[in-house]
Specification:
5-stranded antiparallel sheet; alpha+beta; Killer Toxin P4, Chain A; single chain; 356 residues; 3 domains; 8 helices
Amino acid sequence: MYISSSRSCCYLLSLAVLFFSCLANNLSISTDPSLHDLVYKHCTSHISAVPTAGSLPEILSSLFRELVEQSSVSKFYETSVGDDDIAISGLFQCRSDLGGDQCFDCVNRLPEMSNALCGRQVQLSFHWTVPARIRLSGCYLHYKADGSQISRLELQHKTCSDSNVVSDGFEGVRDGAFAAVVSGVMSGNGFCDMSYESVHVTAQCQGNLEICDCGECVANAVQIAQDECGESISGEVYLDSCFMTYSYDGINEIPGNSNGGFGTRNIDSGKFVAIVGGVAVAAAFILFFFCFCKSLRRKSDGLTLLQELAQLLKSDSTIESTDWASICKGEVEVLLEQIGNLQEASPCFGLVATVE
């Protein structure tokens, strides 16, 4: 049996949309140059600052496995792992605007980086330092002896750009952006990524903070940026339980300055052209399918479907309007069969409909 003509054409359009959606999913554009760039590391200055350190490698290994597993389903997770003598609490968090695969890929790198950056070789033995904190652009890892306390407002890392903004109105715009991000992070479930006039600002709180504590944390980070970064073109402030970054996007107004800030959403011009071109091609492809579907007829001249397609592409004549009841019959089955033959060539053609 054949699919009805209207359903056939809709199905062809759906295939085109699915095809270009698949292509688009493979064009991953990150808001940062690299989600895996190291922002900072904190390792204790002494070795294995916990009792019964002999079991520490196994405990940390178990902790890392659990955190990595959870990163495939969550952007934030904290747990505690240990035995009768020692317990280590740990957590990870990804930026809220990352996809699930991006979060997993980022967190999956953290255990190895922790071992490389915070482990120590002493004679013939390898030792771990506790506590430790590894922060990448897209995620971070923190583990410590269970029960140890630290202020959520404790400064962990700060950088301010060496380049300054030479604009009379910069401080007013910057302060407006800072006020907006404090409000935004409280109303945005602990994450805010926004542009305020010419300033791009991002803030995120640790996943276990209450709204008011989150607002207080980001407000403290903002105050540090105001006091210590001044008119710097960009800055980053990381406290124990939140971070805030900003960058001035009005670079063209400042001769000689370049933006080294974190978290800007400026898209490379080449990528932008590629995106626009891809969208245009997708639209043209879908429109072509629509017109081609309307022009299909049952032929007895021995031409295959692909030959008909080639003829249509070469034709300069206007495609005449036809009755929907007389089109998209047996050709649909042929088209589906040929698309099915492409399954092995590309996963984008993985969906083949059942013809009723």
